[in-house]
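Subgroup meeting minutes
Present: P.N., E.W., G.H.
Scribe: E.W.

1. P.N. recapped why we're keeping a running log of single-chain structure predictions: easier to compare across weeks, and new members can see raw inputs and outputs side by side.
2. G.H. added today's entry (257 aa).
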Amino acid sequence: MGYYGVSNIVGGHEEYVAEANAPKHKSQMDKDDFLKLLVAQLNHQDPLNPMEDTEMTGQLAEYSSLEQLTNVNTTLDTMLQQSASDQMTTAVSFIGKSVSAKGYNVTKDGNQVSTITYNLGEAVSQLKVNIYDESGDIVRTDLLGSKEPGIFEYAWDGKDDSGNIVADGTYSVGMLGEDVDGQQVMVQTEVSGEVTGVVAEESGYYLRLKDGRYVNFNFVTEVVSDSTINTDEGGDGTDSGSDSGNTDNTDNTDADA
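Output recorded in log:
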């Protein structure tokens, strides 16, 4: 996410003015150019060898098609601009509200580590959690044991496999389950939090959460309020229920959000 200071804003304004005053160069012929070319061709045709009716009809048909395509493009541009405006309005309306969205990031700031929610559509005999740093290296692996279908919350204590406290920053969570038949089950993870701002990027709009994470506006699944959900204290590899998980340092492939 990029943010700009005053110098960037001023420089951007000067660039905008320069572009606005610069002569426009068109790489393609529009309908006005086509019509001017056709009129010029008629004015300069050889009187002894005038344009055939079929040729005139063909060129007029081309002009009609060009005009229709131009109108379609104009309509599409208008629709896209309106859609972007509506999306921004909706995104801004989320500020101050709590949302859930598909995602896999957690943030660590001192002793505070954000949590992540996951949904199991089927029972698993083993659930493995990998914590990745920004370089893609695994810093922590937890085994949470068997799980029944349901919605759970995973809480990491911010330590690596050796028990050392890791640096503050953003980390990714990858979860992979194994069913009773030994088949791998990908697990969908979600993040939630209070929205404090909206950021516009080329790829779309992103909601900034209170804990510093960003979620794609298009990935929002619901606007939520405080609710009671199950919690896995994954920091020490121990489930908060009656099951006890163990810590595993082996590598595995995570499920992308």
